Each structure stands twice: as C-alpha cells, then as structure tokens.
Amino acid sequence: MTGIVDVAARAGVSVATVSRALRGLPGVSPATRAAVQAVATELGYVPSPSAAGLPTGRTGAVGVVSPVARGWYFSAVAEGAQEAFSAAGYDVLRYGLADVETQRRRVVDTHLLRKRVDALVVLSLPLMPDEVTALVAMQRPVVAIGPVMPGIPTVRIDDVEVGRMAAEHLVRLGHRRIGFIGGDPDDHLGFPVAPDRQRGYAEVLRAAGVEPDPALTVAGRFVAEAGVEAYAEFKRRGPLPTAVMAVSDEIAMGFVHAARQDGVRVPDDVSVMGVDDHDLAWLFGLTTVAQPVREEGRIAAAYLLDRLRGRDADHAEIMTLPTRLIVRTTTAAPAAR
Length: 337
Prior knowledge:
Blueprint: H1 4-11, H2 15-23, H3 30-43, H4 49-56, E1 61-66, H5 72-87, E2 91-96, H6 100-107, H7 110-116, E3 119-123, H8 129-137, E4 142-145, E5 154-156, H9 159-172, E6 178-181, H10 193-207, E7 217-218, H11 224-237, E8 243-246, H12 249-261, E9 271-276, E10 287-290, H13 293-308, E11 318-320, E12 324-326
Parallel strand pairs: 1-2, 1-3, 3-4, 4-5, 5-11, 6-7, 6-8, 8-9, 9-10
Antiparallel strand pairs: 10-12
Helix pairs in contact: 1-2, 1-3, 2-3, 2-4, 5-13, 9-10, 11-12
C-alpha cells in the first residue's frame, strides 16, 4: 500500500512538505504543491487525517461547541460551516452540552481540544471570562456565533433589533395586546437570545404607549412543543392576545398548530409572528424575521480557514449580519371585537 513516505521519495521532498501540500497549508510553493499532488494522484495515495497531522501538529478537524447538538438552528448553522470546512479538507466534530456541569468542563478542557481540533467554533454559548482566557491561550483559532464575548471574534445578528422588527410589524398592523413566548426557565448557560428579543419587543410596546403585561408573557424553550404549551397557557389565563410574537419559528409553528386544532383562526382571531425563517416556515405561511442562518456558519468557517492558512482574516472582530422581515399569511390587522 502506498504511503506518505513513498510520495515524499518520488516527489523529492520531506514527509512534512507532502503533508502540508496535500492539506492546503501555507509554507509550500505552488510548483511544489502541484508536483506533490501529481505524484499522490499517480500513486493513488489518499492521506489519512490522523496520520497527516503527525508531521505538522494538525489534526485536520474543527470543533463546533453548542448548548445542544440537535435542533434546527444549530444544525443549519453547523451545515453552513461544514460545507466550507469539508471543501477545504477538514472534518467537523460537534460537541453538545447536554449535561451542563460535567460536559462544560470536558468541552473547555483545552488539553483535550488541542489534541483533537485545529480550530473551534463556539455556537450560541456564552462563555465565562476564565473559559475565554483558556481558549485564547490554547493557541488555536476560535470564532463565536451568537453572543459577543470580549477576546473572541464573533458572527452575530442584533437580537434586540430582531425583537423590535417583529413587534413593530404587529404594532403597525394595529395590535396593542401582543403576547410574547420565549425564555427557557431551566437555562443554566445564560443564553441571551430570548431576553434580547424580549427587550426589543418591550421597547416597541412602550414607544406605542403600552406597558408590557407579564400576563402576556409565557416562557418556552426553542421547540415546537413550547408553542403548543404556550397556547394552552394563554387560553388558561383568559382571552387570547390579538397577536403573539414567538422568539423562534419553531415555537410559532407549534402555537399556530395548537390554535388551529382548537378552532382558532390564524390570523383572523390571533396573529402569529416568528423569528428565523425556518425551512418549513413557508408551509405554515408564517410571518417571520429572517436571519441568514447557514451564512453565519459559512462566514465563521471562512474566518477560521483564513487563520488556519496563515492569513490575517479580512473580517471585523464583530460581524453583525442583517435580518429582514418576511410577511406571509399568519399576521393581519386585529379583528373588531
């Protein structure tokens, strides 16, 4: 079986040069890289990711750390990042913090990460200052998607502005009794998305002369089941609000499903607004504030790939991506009551 030593001997270069050339790493001239690739093709050599890392100290893998490994948002962002990493020859290792106390310690174990990954994406996970310091000291490129953390470059959207955009749409339609769904009561990580979107919602209501009513706020995780539960809770508390803003499309879709199952017409009886532009949002006719989820992953990956190739990343330290309102059929002016 042909090995890297055979390729190095035929090309007349060192094993380390072969590894760098085939991994697309810096420090190899274009002519040498082309010659090594030609010899590898001729000999039918396919580098092993683990073996290729021995001469260079590289693993050929990038880690993605997130609160959970499942869920549409996390999967879509990781999908965007993986497209870019795979095209550059990197594997992606995903770490979900299902068990907050033990898993968090394991994931931020920099000794473990240094052996497993060449770079790290921190996805929607607010780190503590000592964790940021440890990751920076690891001397591996790190980029965050979501919460801004001093010392780590970040790809983000403005979640307060997202809340404003959603609430302003409902206020412009004439709604004043607007419910809010979001905020996981069991969140131990300090996930800031729901509080930031709620802050934008509250600012818009106050600007319209309406003090946010705690009775019109229902907590809920970022899953469709939370929307179903929120519908039942709003109904238990009394008359439904004329409109509801959910912090994610998944919650909004669950609410729409529960309302329709109960004979409540959307948007005639209650308007429903989401956030994200989920892949299935169109199926519900869901009005939403869209964020470029997969593009967030691609931009974060591009930043890390620049760093891994020895280039200064041509990006700002905080990259705020635009969001946009998409009006479909789940929102309308409130019916006369």
